[in-house]
Amino acid sequence: MSIVANSAVIGSITTLIVGICIFLWIKREKSKNKKKLLLDPNVKYQVPLIAKEDISWNTRRFRFGLPDDTVLGVGPGEHIYLSAKINDDLIIRPYSPVTNDETKGYFDLVIKIYFANKNPKFPNGGKMTQYLDSMKIGDKIDIRGPEGRLIYTSNGDFLIKKKKTDPPVKHHYKKLGMIAGGTGLTPLLAVLREIASNPDDKTRVSFLFANQTSDDILLRDELDKIAANHPDQIKVWYTLSKPEEGWKFSIGRVDENMIKDYLFPPADDTLIMMCGPPAMIRETCQPLLDKLGYNESKRHVF
């Protein structure tokens, strides 16, 4: 190779390294200077609803306001609690924001509404979700946090608590297998976004996302874009229990073959992360992972 060619290669590598260093420096400086709303998980704050968007017939994006120069203060993998007095009962529910913690002035929640008289097992529907759906712009709700047993820091590093009251322990994983059902997407998406937004983060991700219909797939455009922009690092696969004609992905509930085909095999450097309906996790995912030899200590359920 000629001296000119060598110089060009060295110059390109130097430019790339400098670019990554600048990106990380800017991110670190922004993190140091962030003003966070949530500093104590035991303190409640009132936030106003400032926008509401229909994503599907039963799913909404709720935007809650923060002071202009303030971020929420919730890391990837953490969640907040919403609380409201509904028919004289105090109702408290956990939710994971879909906006990242660089977002100032507001945060978004994507929530499926469980309407009354739609499911015979739950004739009254969801108290909190129907309450949220009834909120008008300007109405306020109480939040507190952050909470959670897992937070993704960067570059495959996690802080994980075995129990809520345990101190966090640092873990490192090179590969992440994610299984989500419905709105269980949201805490996993926060980790996925953090990886995709950092060019220095080489953590590999395989994502298996289960829904009933294609209309139920939340934020599919974003998931597909992330996968397309990181073809050698991030894979996203879908399965539907009620597919339409011409569906090109898997059909049915998560099964043994899907896990074999679309997740990483069991390994010490692989963490399996799950979030979805409790019955899906308890009766389907966990038994399948047991059968396929995934170590229970290498799994995390949100």
UniProtKB/TrEMBL annotation:
Q: What CDD domains does this protein's entry cite?
A: cyt_b5_reduct_like
Q: Kindly list the cofactors needed.
A: FAD
* Catalysed transformations (reactions): 2 Fe(III)-[cytochrome b5] + NADH = 2 Fe(II)-[cytochrome b5] + NAD(+) + H(+)
The record's GO molecular-function terms, alphabetically, read: cytochrome-b5 reductase activity, acting on NADH; FAD binding
Q: Which UniProt keywords apply?
A: FAD, Flavoprotein, Membrane, Mitochondrion, Mitochondrion outer membrane, NAD, Oxidoreductase, Transmembrane, Transmembrane helix
Q: What is its EC number?
A: 1.6.2.2
Fetch the InterPro entries from UniProt: CBR-like (IPR001834), Cbr1-like_FAD-bd_dom (IPR008333), FAD-bd_FR_type (IPR017927), Flavoprot_Pyr_Nucl_cyt_Rdtase (IPR001709), FNR_nucleotide-bd (IPR039261), OxRdtase_FAD/NAD-bd (IPR001433), Riboflavin_synthase-like_b-brl (IPR017938)
Q: Which residues bind FAD?
A: R93, P94, Y95, V110, K112, F115, K127, M128, T186
Q: Where are the transmembrane segments?
A: 6-26
Broad class of enzyme this protein falls into: oxidoreductase
Give the superkingdom in one word: Eukaryota
Which cellular compartments is it found in? Mitochondrion outer membrane
- Predominant place of localization: mitochondrion
Q: Where is the FAD-binding FR-type domain?
A: 42-153
One GO cellular component assignment for this chain's record is: mitochondrial outer membrane
- What PANTHER family does this protein's entry cite? NADH-CYTOCHROME B5 REDUCTASE
Q: Which family does it belong to?
A: Belongs to the flavoprotein pyridine nucleotide cytochrome reductase family.
What protein name applies here? NADH-cytochrome b5 reductase
**Organism, as annotated:** Tetranychus urticae (Two-spotted spider mite)
